[in-house]
Write a structure and sequence with these properties.
Keywords: Membrane, Transmembrane, Transmembrane helix. Helix 3 runs antiparallel to helix 4. This protein has a five-stranded antiparallel beta sheet with strand order 2-1-3-4-5, with helices on one face. The termini are far apart. The chain has two domains: about 110 residues, no CATH class; about 100 residues, no CATH class. The model has no long low-confidence stretch (mean pLDDT about 75). By secondary structure, it is α+β, with helices and mostly antiparallel strands. It is built from six helices and five strands, in the order H-E-E-E-E-E-H-H-H-H-H. The longest helix is centred in the last third of the chain and has 35 residues. It is elongated.
């Protein structure tokens, strides 16, 4: 809804859109397991939540016909199967480059404010490569040099398993684009429990065991 309001205001402020001609400027397509639903505004949704099986949402804005030949079209695509959102802007008008850059920057700021923590599950290639090398080195050391009787050995293995899980499974379990639904709310609660459990294990099962003797003497 904020997206539609922003686009309307941006074009109204630029005097490219008449307040009386706002009907039909938006097109929203929502795809799920049942098919594709087409709306003229996100406000037409009967509920504030998407269906659990929603896989993609397309939002398109197009200026109505103008006698002066000015044209503009904006399309945003959000997909559970892809990282980031896809933004397409075309404009035929005076100073179109400056207009499009301003619109793009404003839309990116709006989208940035909606970002959730799932981006952490999708590291950039440099970070992913560094973690992969680190996991291989840690695994090699654990197999060949680490003493399995040492207190930190369980922590060592836990960290290796955690890195492999993060690299190969976390991204699939936490998609970059998420549509708010009952399923996403349940998933967030479950992940909160899992993260809390992992943190508790890391603290009480490994770190305290490792530092118990030097701190407590037994």
């Amino acid at each position: 809804m904020e997206l539609e309001e922003y686009l309307e205001k941006y074009f109204l402020d630029a005097s490219f859109l008449d307040a009386e001609k706002r009907n039909g400027i938006f097109s929203v397509k929502i795809e799920d397991n049942l098919g594709v639903e087409k709306l003229s505004s996100i406000k037409q949704m009967n509920t504030s939540l998407f269906a659990d099986s929603t896989s993609s949402v397309d939002v398109e804005f197009e200026l109505p016909y103008r006698d002066d030949g000015i044209k503009a079209r904006v399309r945003l695509n959000f997909s559970r199967k892809k990282m980031y959102a896809k933004l397409y802007i075309s404009a035929v008008m005076p100073n179109s480059r400056e207009f499009v850059l301003g619109l793009r920057n404003g839309l990116l700021r709006l989208l940035e404010s909606q970002k959730i923590w799932h981006w952490i599950a999708h590291p950039v290639p440099q970070v992913g490569g560094a973690l992969f090398v680190a996991a291989c080195i840690l695994g090699y050391i654990a197999i060949n040099f680490a003493d399995k009787k040492e207190n930190f050995y369980s922590l060592w293995i836990f960290l290796i398993a955690l890195i492999w899980f993060y690299l190969f499974f976390m991204g699939d379990l936490r998609p970059y684009n998420v549509f708010k639904s009952r399923a996403s709310d349940r998933s967030d609660k479950i992940w909160g429990w899992l993260i809390g459990g992992a943190a508790t294990f890391l603290l009480f099962g490994t770190l305290l065991t490792l530092f118990r003797r030097p701190l407590l003497g037994f």
